[in-house]
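Exam prep: given the inputs below (a chain plus 4'-deoxy-4'-aminopyridoxal-5'-phosphate), describe the expected output before reading on.
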Amino acid sequence: MNKYWSETIKGIIPYVPGEQPRTGRLVKLNTNENPYPPSEAVLEAMKSAVTERLKLYPDPNCTLLRQAAASYYGTSPEMVFAGNGSDEILAFCYKAFFDPGDWLLIPDITYNFYEVYADLFGISYQTIPLTPEFEVSVQAFAEPCDGIILANPNAPTGKALPLIEIEALAKNHPEAVVIVDEAYVDFGGESAIPLLPFYDNLLVIRTFSKSRSLAGLRIGLAFGHPDLIEALIRVRDCVNCFTVDWIAQAGAIASLRDETTFRSNLASIVNTRSKATSLLRAAGFEVIASSTNFLMASYPGLPAKGLYEALRSRNIFVRFFPKPRIDQYLRITVGTDEDMSILLDALTDLT
Ligand code: PMP
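Solution:
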């Protein structure tokens, strides 16, 4: 604490990201990164972007990337915004669509950044409890509000909401902006992008950090009505016009063009997820059926925190959230088959 700090910063509890340990051999299953590297085509595109052109600022509007994304997702470039990771876009949303005094509805168990941004930007919010089965109940989101923000599939529960329920949220709240964070949708959810022509209050946010193996590049996209996109552009241009560098723009475009690697990596992860779910269950764990690239697993009678620490001391990193209702679970990113078998051996040893 320092006398120069603003009152907001004195009062805020920032988001705590998963550890990025630098030690040698470790099994890193704590931040939902993709275990497979970006394809050669993507790496080549980025190397080709390392030219003298770096002396120039990048295209602030990410024109080519927005065109590539629009044609990939069957929408138009005016309905696409590109940002420095989806976290940045989420932060911009709070400034673009809400004012102090507005009310947001947020699930009680979800991506913690949604509450951190609300606190940072002074937006009031109510947390809406998930059902005992960790489902988002659309009926529970019936209250009048200025915005709703949720992840579909949800994190860290891994559960997906059918598209019809997302549509109900947008339909029931025509005065509110409904923000759907689809960070994990490629692993098994239904995207709300096809709903966009029908709902001018719906914004869908995507990231290249998970299914596209590019967490280190920092690329996120938002899709929505051009008026919503315009608001995001305004916020960006009040903060930093050049959020996505030349190299990132080139890598992201190449990723959208490399469908084969993308699909094959997704298939491997989904296959490993299903094997790991069965093996963990056979080893006595309760595992929530996941539509994402991570699993929530608990072992009846054994505190998850102890397991987390014991794994950590063996250089196996998973995530533990000291939060009511989920503090009995480990969140385990789906890695390679080899990663999962090291994890399973360790867990079998510890339980
Ligand atoms: N949304 C959710 C639900 C996430 O789990 C994450 C990753 N921690 C993000 C957004 C942020 O992703 P990005 O790397 O694009 O900022």
